[in-house]
Amino acid sequence: MIAALAPNPSIDRFFLVADEVRVGQIHRPSELVATAGGKGLNVARAASTLGGDVRAVALLAGHAGRWIADELLDHAIRADVVWTTGETRTSLSAADPSSGRPTEFYERGESTDPAAWERFVERVAAVTGAGWAAVSGSLPPGVAARGSAELIERARAGGARVAVDQQGPALSAALEAAPDLVKVNASEARELTGQQDPRAAARSLHASLSERRSAAGLDAPAAIVTAGEDGAYLVAPDGRIHHGTIDVRGPFPNGSGDSFLGGLLVALDAGEDYPDALPLALGAATANAERAGAGRLDPRRARTLAAQALVRRA
Questions:
Q1: Pairing between β-strand 31-37 and β-strand 89-95 as defined by DSSP bridges
Q2: Can you list the alpha helix ranges (DSSP code H) found in 28-162?
Q3: Domain with 280 in it: what CATH number?
Q4: pTM (2 d.p.)
Q5: DSSP 3-state assignment of 70?
Q6: At what angle do helices 198-215 and 168-176 cross, to 10 degrees?
Q7: Residue 12, beta-bridge partner list
Q8: Which residues pair with 54 in a beta bridge?
Q9: What's the CA gap between 206 and 118, in Å, rounded?
Q10: Is-contact 128 158, C-beta < 8 A?
Q11: Does the CA dihedral 28-32-38-39 come out positive or negative?
């Protein structure tokens, strides 16, 4: 089972407009896609769509939170919900069909009641039987970066291996807790390691994470840097570097990183090793980019694309 932790969910609204998005102009969307979003729920939806056994753990509030809970139910995604005060945030993206390049507006959300955060952490600790737990996305306002490490420690105590996809102070705090896997994009990796080249950044990230896990008496980790059209660089636990690519492009990249992680965890949870899990991750990310809306993909298309993936030693 995969536990997808969603500490700061969002209603994600994606507008597809006929022409280029222009500042100060009126736009009449030709299509609207609304999803139960935020990175954690995108991972949950992608993994569930691919046939994974998924349980989402989400911190929700208000009318928006109830909409998200209903949406998860409609998509048959099991969810453990912790309710807090205020209102769950909404995020908006708009793009034209020719470029697909989004203009994005992400609310930070409201500060979370400390008691609700403690209940959320305890709910994570209560999830049993998960082979993997994913800690994805931002933390809600009012929760210190150390909250990421807390989630990792609680999930690990429950017997799960832990994958992290965050950025900034939350990512730095997460790395201090020595997760089993870290997946970041090239920009986040560059900020963290100072390395411009994604392959070098993946190696640097793996080295620092290996040092932390060794000091804690844990086995070797894996590190992945996704690089858009250049695919992804995986440093496996044995230190070998693998470069995975698919020669297919989609116009809607929003959520492709989350779908990548969802696909990867489905394969890993099924017993695949890291290099063999990389094609499904790439297939899921590419299938996501072919449809408007984050974490929405055709599972058959994802597996067809996975069969086209090229993975080689780098």
A1: unpaired
A2: 39-49, 62-74, 114-126, 146-157
A3: 3.40.1190.20
A4: 0.95
A5: helix
A6: 40
A7: 35, 91
A8: 2
A9: 31
A10: yes
A11: negative
